[in-house]
């Protein structure tokens, strides 16, 4: 049964749920999705501290200080970072203080070393303006009890640092969905095997493993199977600990397009077996015991688009992301797209900023088997169904791809 792309996406998204949580050492958490909302058990900074190497004093005493009329203070203490000042600042006194050290009791300002002249324990303040501003107040960035990082946040470098500030050495993150990858086709061989007539190397599993990782999943290579129902079924059954099962090849109508038969044999309920889009029209989806099966086309560029449109949003949801879709913007065609479009079409493209416009150019080699078109792309042009050939200057919708 053939369905529209939006319906296929909805069917899959409705069937999957977010993965359970696991604790992971913070240093391993980059790009994981936070599985808990983290509140602060402290104010941060946890004490009033100095942002400068200088002298702490009562700010009001030094506001008039200039190089011609310095204010003289007597040093009573030295406070390094990590110190715990015990001496109280009173009129006419100061403590030498280092960046990050706690402000001593009684002090209301700090003057940097460069604006002082020191002679023994006598300190001349040459410029006292702004002394009161040179204090980082307790709780300036975070207050105790504040919800600082929300569940579902992607752990980037800033979040890593913040979780460390909050003492989260082993935060809960969502477990990565495990995605079994199987290449089917009697012509497909492992990439380190010698080539023979009629054979090609399995590029799909490698391409998809990158797409799986980028969508927050963990790829599990199950190798390849020839065009044989039992062989494919056996490989699929060998990975019972996987959450999603992705095959490539055998998705169309040829004599050896067996994935539908494999699903029957395994008791996988078919959800759809064609989606109205190009490339990637032949694509099956099925479900068994809550686990999703995706049968992608063997054609590399078609498999990539099917995965991008159907597999990626599903994995993004499973891995705990709040947003499953990539950003879409408007661009202006810098070269024509000469084909008529029946079903909705995705075209590999490169886009760039030119003055106030985003210009976009379809990749030259757009064949379904051609990885070159995907390789050079940083965007996909979305061409609506039933579109005529598109001229230079036409405004088109583009999906921004992540890392190109
Ligand atoms: N009579 C029809 N023939 C075809 C139709 C159709 O509607 N009627 N659709 C065409 C379209 S469009 C596509 S897309 C393909 C889809 O075919 P399959 O999904 O069954 O894929 P295969 O035939 O197994 O392989 C297609 C192509 O890709 C190569 N391939 C397969 N696996 C890999 C791999 N792991 N790494 C690299 N390349 C791979 C394979 O050798 C074929 O050349 O069907 C059209 N035919
Ligand atoms: O539909 Mo095929 O999927 O054009 O590549």
Automatic annotation (TrEMBL):
It comes from the Bacteria. Its cofactor is Mg(2+). SMART domains: MoCF_biosynth (SM00852). It is an enzyme of class 2 (transferase). One of its GO terms (molecular function) is molybdopterin molybdotransferase activity. Its EC number is 2.10.1.1. Residues 180-317 form the MoaB/Mog domain. It catalyses: adenylyl-molybdopterin + molybdate = Mo-molybdopterin + AMP + H(+). The keyword Metal-binding applies. Pfam families: MoCF_biosynth (PF00994), MoeA_C (PF03454), MoeA_N (PF03453). Signal peptide: none annotated. Keywords: Magnesium, Metal-binding, Molybdenum, Molybdenum cofactor biosynthesis, Transferase. Pathway: Cofactor biosynthesis; molybdopterin biosynthesis. Belongs to the MoeA family. Catalyzes the insertion of molybdate into adenylated molybdopterin with the concomitant release of AMP. This is Molybdopterin molybdenumtransferase. It comes from Sporomusa silvacetica DSM 10669. The lineage of its organism: Bacteria, Bacillati, Bacillota, Negativicutes, Selenomonadales.
């Amino acid at each position: 049964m053939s369905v529209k792309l939006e319906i296929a996406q909805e069917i899959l998204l409705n069937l999957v749920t977010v993965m359970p949580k696991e604790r992971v050492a913070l240093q391993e958490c980059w790009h994981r999705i936070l599985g808990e909302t983290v509140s602060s058990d402290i104010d941060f900074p946890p004490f009033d501290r100095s942002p400068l190497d200088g002298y702490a004093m009562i700010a009001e005493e030094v506001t008039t200080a200039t190089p011609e009329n310095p204010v003289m203070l007597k040093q009573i203490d030295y406070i390094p970072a990590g110190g715990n000042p015990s001496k109280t600042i009173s009129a006419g006194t100061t403590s030498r203080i280092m960046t990050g050290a706690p402000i001593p009791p009684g002090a209301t300002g700090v003057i940097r070393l460069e604006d002082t002249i020191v002679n023994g324990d006598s300190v001349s303040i040459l410029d006292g303006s702004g002394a009161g501003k040179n204090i980082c107040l307790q709780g300036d960035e975070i207050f105790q009890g504040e919800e600082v990082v929300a569940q579902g946040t992607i752990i980037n470098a800033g979040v890593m640092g913040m979780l460390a500030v909050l003492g989260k050495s082993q935060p809960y993150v969502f477990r990565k969905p495990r995605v079994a990858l199987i290449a089917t086709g009697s012509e497909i061989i492992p990439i380190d095997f010698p080539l023979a007539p009629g054979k090609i190397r399995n590029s799909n599993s490698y391409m998809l493993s990158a797409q799986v990782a980028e969508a927050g999943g963990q790829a599990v290579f199950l190798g390849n199977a020839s065009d044989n129902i039992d062989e494919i079924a056996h490989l699929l059954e060998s990975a019972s600990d996987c959450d999603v099962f992705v095959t490539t090849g055998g998705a169309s109508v040829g004599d050896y397009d067996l994935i539908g038969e494999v699903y029957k044999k395994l008791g996988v309920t078919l959800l759809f077996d064609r989606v109205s889009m190009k490339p990637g029209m032949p694509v099956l989806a099925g479900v068994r015991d809550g686990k999703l099966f995706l049968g992608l086309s063997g054609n590399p560029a078609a498999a990539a688009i099917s995965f991008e449109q159907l597999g990626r949003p599903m994995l993004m949801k499973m891995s705990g992301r709040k947003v499953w879709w990539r950003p879409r913007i408007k661009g202006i065609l810098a070269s024509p797209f000469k084909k008529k479009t029946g079903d909705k079409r995705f075209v590999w493209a490169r886009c760039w900023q030119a003055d106030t416009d985003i210009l976009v150019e379809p990749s030259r080699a757009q064949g379904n088997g051609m990885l070159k078109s995907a390789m050079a792309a940083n965007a996909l042009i979305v061409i609506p169904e039933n579109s005529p050939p598109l001229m230079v200057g036409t405004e088109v919708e583009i999906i921004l791809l992540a890392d190109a």
